[in-house]
Amino acid sequence: MSIETDKTTPQHDVDVATPLESRIARKGQLPRWGTAAALAGAAVIIGGALAATGAFSIGLFVFLTVVLFAVGLYAISRAVEGGRKAADRVVTIVVTSAFLLALIPLISVVWTVLSNGVARFDAEFFSSSMRGVVGEGGGGYHAIMGTLIITALAAAMSIPVGLLTAVYLVEYGVGTRLARSITFFVDVMTGIPSIVAGLFAYALFALFAGPGVRLGFAGAVALSVLMIPVVVRATEEMLKIVPNELREAAFALGVPKWRTILKVVIPTSIAGIASGITLAIARVIGETAPLLIAVGITTGLNFNPFDGRQATLPVFAYYSYAAPGVPRDPYVDRAWTAALVLIVIVMVLNLAARLIARLFAPKNR
Amino acid sequence: MGKAIEAIDLDIYYGSFLAVQGVNMTIRPKTVTALIGPSGCGKSTYLRSINRMHEVIPGARVEGSIELDGTDLYGAGVDPVGVRRQIGMVFQRPNPFPTMSIYDNVIAGQRLNNKRMRKDATDDLVERSLRGANLWNEVKDRLEKPGSGLSGGQQQRLCIARAIAVQPDVLLMDEPCSALDPISTLAIEDLINELKMDYTIVIVTHNMQQAARVSDYTGFFNIEGTGKPGKLVEMDETKKIFSQPTQKATEDYVSGRFG
Predict the structure, then answer these.
(1) Would B259 be classed as within a structural domain?
(2) Residue A328 belongs to what domain range?
(3) Chain B interface, Cβ < 8 Å to A
(4) Residues A249, A346: one domain?
């Protein structure tokens, strides 16, 4: 459409009399330091006002500053830059504040655990159990080993079951009633409170071994009840995103379905599956309630999950804090260090998941 | 290698929906047969029924029969996996296996089926298949690189090499050039001309010039309306279909008056 026809037949609401330059021109712009200046101004005003009234508190100060900053910047920006830019600035402030708000508890937890736990984060903590220890010294070696053994057992049970369930759901059962009900119950299981899983495992083993049974293996069963749905979900999503074309390519070469799944579908998605499984392990390794019920606590080393109680890091931390000896301080210190070790393990697992994803990912070029 | 295909009163269903009705078609050995027709007319469905690939979709089934040199592919004792080893397929979008190198992609049919081969026999097969697909000179120095790093046209030729490496009797191609540029298309078309020395080729295409260029015989599929089954309207030598078809619908389609 040429400019002339545009003038003779004005079909749009656009003001055709205005030249193009002024239609696309910027209205005005705040200087680059405008945002920082507005924030500083808001902080000074609020700080001054709060100090004058004598009701200064850091929480109130931050909250009011952010509110004044948002309102003030909106007003200034609207006057200088127009409504669209002003709305953009306000939304930017809102999402940034939400992000910082979400970060506060995270940083607070990490900082508290780190500063309290570092005191006993020493060689002795990693080399000695609590057998015969009263007061200072001792460590969480037995709890670390217990956590690793029980979680490894849980993973050994959950990964095959979860993986095969996901393969059934994606490759064999699409659209069938069985698959739909499995998906439904997996979703329900994802929401099971962990204490219920612990009670289930305890009740199950009480049937065989009588009431009062405490067993590392029972804890592993409880954890795998929690872990299986997570593994199923993660694996299912990963298998679903394998392009159907690859399956068809294998079928067209006369490859049977089970070989196609084993050698094409799973290798293609192994990166996602592996990291999903690692995250599922990280999810259950810190579970306390089921282990409290099904495994209990002990002061000594026990490498045998089929024979009696085992200590685990979360339960060790819980008991050290809830039922300390006298003097109290060494017990509390050990509880913090146990929490710190747990966080480090989870962090290592997360890093491992990323590394695995990168190692296994299909390479281009 | 290079066998005849005979479809007799073939109806193809998806569940209770009749997708293709009453196809009778004879495909001669070592010829190129093009299937043309508007979208949704069932030509791809028919093509996939030849190597029983349509069965991948739950609820798909056929009535009637397809015979490969007189053997009914839908007979009681026939394994669809065995059928697909005899009748290879190349798809619309190039789909090399992303986890495998170029070398492994070519012998994927053997590797995935755990066929044990000596190293020199494998090397030989890879070279022969890649030469057969006109790709050897372009990739011989980077056989260990992933197949997904090649260009679209090279990937499609890699898929053809992979299909001919299992030494099938028939090669089905489902719009093999629709995702490719004209130069890659030309490379594939030249390749089709060479491959018909050894294989029976059936190709689905939306490009009528391509059908005219590469095929010896052409079948025209049509559909009367949505929800109706697709039917084979007419099949004859390509020259005849494009110059003097017997059916009005065929003439309208090849002359571009509809579809």
Answers:
(1) no
(2) 124-360
(3) 51, 53, 56, 58, 81-86, 88-89, 91, 93, 95-99, 108-109, 111-114, 145-146, 148-149, 159, 162-163, 166
(4) yes
User: Under DSSP, is residue A227 helix (H, G, I), strand (E, B) or coil?
Assistant: helix
What are the structure tokens assigned to B226, written together? 């949505």
**DSSP 3-state of A161:** helix
Cα distances (angstroms) measured from residue B44 to each of A259, B54, B170: 26, 9, 16
pLDDT at A2: 43
Beta carbons within 10 angstroms of residue A259's beta carbon? 15
Reported as a pLDDT band with limits 50, 70 and 90, residue A285 is: very high
CA A146, CA A296: separation in Å to the nearest integer?
Answer: 11
Q: What is the pLDDT of residue B1?
A: 61
Q: What are B208's two structure tokens? A: 């009528």
Q: A203, exposed or middle or buried, with CB in 10 Å at 0-12, 13-18, 19+?
A: middle
pLDDT in tens, B182-232: 888 888 899 899 888 989 999 999 888 899 999 999 999 998 888 889 999
User: What pLDDT, in 10s, does the model give residues B25-83?
Assistant: 999 999 999 999 988 888 999 999 999 998 888 889 999 999 998 889 998 888 989 89
**Residue A365 belongs to some domain of the structure:** no
Per the CB < 8 A criterion, the answer to whether A225 and A191 are in contact is no
Beta pairing class for B60-68 and B71-72: antiparallel
Q: Do B163 and A248 touch (CB under 8 A)?
A: no
Average pLDDT over residues A191-219: 92
How are the residues of chain B apportioned to helix, strand and coil, as percentages rounded to the nearest 5? 40, 25, 35
pLDDT of A11 higher than 60: no
- The reply to whether residue B97 touches residue A363, judged by beta carbons under 8 angstroms, is no
List the CATH number of the domain containing B225.
Answer: 3.40.50.300
Count of the separate structural domains present in chain A? 2
Collect all residues of chain B within an 8 Å Cβ-Cβ radius of residue A249.
Answer: 91, 95-97, 108, 159, 162
pLDDT at A7 over 60: no
> Both tokens of residue B21?
């009705």
Residue at which a domain ends, from A70, A96, A118 = A118
Determine, for residues B112 and A252 on separate chains, whether the beta-carbon distance falls below 8 Å.
Answer: no
Q: Do A208 and A236 reside in the same domain of the chain? A: yes
Answer yes or no: is A3 within a domain. Answer: no
Q: Residues A184, A112: one domain?
A: no
Domain that holds residue B48: 5-254
A251 in B contact zone (CB under 8 Å): yes
Averaged pLDDT of chain A: 88
